[in-house]
């Protein structure tokens, strides 16, 4: 071990004080402390993959060192962390040199930093404040860097970034990435050898899907999308690349040479054109979250916009990279030993923080699964205060050795769900308590069970009060019977008053009594009654989905509803009848059989029936042939701008019934974009992509209504 336990404690304490104090007049001892800290934290991050501080905290320390060195240039030593690029070499694969060393990027955090950058670029290039300058703003992907080499139009080598000069060879894994062409026509531009840089990355949606599957299979979870991607790069078996759906964006040409090793330009001397050119050669290049900006003000606006919107992008990004568009100007700006002077990274607000785990609570879900939830000292994280975080299941707690009293590293990635990356073992005092999972249900006290092959402990008491409440919440929700205006807080309130003991009570409410409750009135009670009455006529696919049967989702409910006339007939269905339905597996079949063999459940359905809830297959439950072989079958579609003849919802429903799938963003997955009036950026993006069919509202209607 490079650092002893004492070293770690000492350096952690030093980190805390450096982060909390602001030293104006630094001395060489303080300077040395900063250097030691940076080297230490780089080792934790790059070599061990076990950071003790957040990226943002690391950046703060790094900046402090830079500031002192700028003030006292004579103090700079060649071994200073600012004088080299950091390393991710772990030694599992052979190292290969890059054609050009890959530097880091200078970070910026606010408008003032960006203005400084602009000022410096102008000074270096010799521009006055009024002269025009074009910057390209593009996503700062949070994945794993890859460096690709093509010779005579073929991909011959791929490597990680490594220490910047050489990286680990991962050609086999790059070749397994569908987004990386193994052949590309560079020779058209007289190029015989070219080195490209990019980022291997996994979609956030894919990441959640994979983790969910891993959770169900009882496997350890990936901490975040970046780990899932960088981990896959270093696996010997390249089938992992496919299994994790790793993609790759290319954002830079580091050097292109002709047959005589002379440097060639492939795209009119502009970075933006270079990206376009790479795109036309079959590479995946940043198109969304990318903008050609005229002047630094436009850059600032763009950075601000994406700090707010980054969660809506399906790839994890931790900032925006700003690059001078003109390559000759890039050349003039040059580089320091650490970073190019023609580019800067605008970093979004921190998404990691540390906090203390105070206690663990256990929640009972609608199917009885017990979820441990960590209560932590509230901590601000990328705009929200986090105080409560799911710990998933017992294995998660054990594999991470999380204890009560621990200092934990918390991260919010992708969307709004925060999670615990790790416990900081180094900071333990000995007073921490190991978490012991309960043996009995916290609500009804029945003995918990853990079915074989499952990660969750379950309460299997069908009349467990906590489960009942969760099931009622689900029953009335959008994913269940979709009873308009009937939210979680109503369920909790009515249950507290003793009015809701199971889901059939939803249809027996006393609206007179409700109208007298505080915050209600006869009008809202009446609206609720109407909404409940309406739900009684729902198709049985919705009813099935509203029953909280383990693993039974929307799609399977629909498929089963297509095959059954009367819900209670399911009591007599053998497993084969379920598994005959393509897409339904034996696990769900068993769950269905179990549900319909429990007398309490049958009694419940009978109560629903006598309350007037529809139990028979409706028109809506029957397979609509038009959808399966509709004119838009298998297509993805998106509506943008203001539609004139129908609402957005109506249009989406029409599209769906013609077999199309509505998606929410313009990407290479989109087939059809329907534009209403005042269509804006989505239309532009679609046109830039060139692969999307653009229809007017008129054209759309003719297509779908004609049938
Ligand atoms: S440009 C000389 N562009 O940021 C710098 N880097 O470079 C050339 N990164 O780990 C890199 N997105 O993998 C550049 N659009 C982007 C990027 C990007 C992510 C990463 C890169 C490297 C770090 C610093």
Outline the structure in words.
The chain has 25 helices and 22 strands. With 707 residues, the chain is of the alpha+beta class. It has five domains: 5-83, Helix hairpin bin (Helix Hairpins); 95-347, D-amino Acid Aminotransferase, Chain A, domain 1; 352-434, OB fold (Dihydrolipoamide Acetyltransferase, E2P), CATH 2.40.50.140; 465-610, DNA polymerase, domain 1, CATH 1.10.150; 626-706, BRCT domain (Rossmann fold, 3-Layer(aba) Sandwich), CATH 3.40.50.10190. It has a five-stranded mixed β-sheet. Strands 14-13-12-16-17 form a five-stranded antiparallel β-sheet. Strand 12 (352-364) and strand 13 form a beta hairpin. The termini are far apart. The mean pLDDT is 89. It binds 2-(butylsulfanyl)adenosine (IVH).
- Note the beta-strand portion: 15-25%
CATH class of the largest domain, anyone?
A: Alpha Beta
* CATH homology superfamily name of the largest domain: DNA ligase/mRNA capping enzyme
Low-confidence runs of at least 5 consecutive residues: none
Averaged pLDDT: 89
How many individual β-strands? 22
Provide the list of bound ligands, each named once.
2-(butylsulfanyl)adenosine
Our measurement of the CA-to-CA distance between the termini, rounded to an integer number of angstroms, reads 71 Å
Alpha-carbon Rg, integer = 29 Å
Shape: globular
Classification by helices and strands: alpha+beta
**Number of individual domains:** 5
The strand line-up of the biggest sheet is 2-11-10-3-9
Helix content: 25-40%
Q: Main β-sheet, in a few words?
A: 5 strands, mixed
CATH topology of the largest domain: D-amino Acid Aminotransferase, Chain A, domain 1
What is the CATH-assigned architecture of the largest domain?
Answer: 2-Layer Sandwich
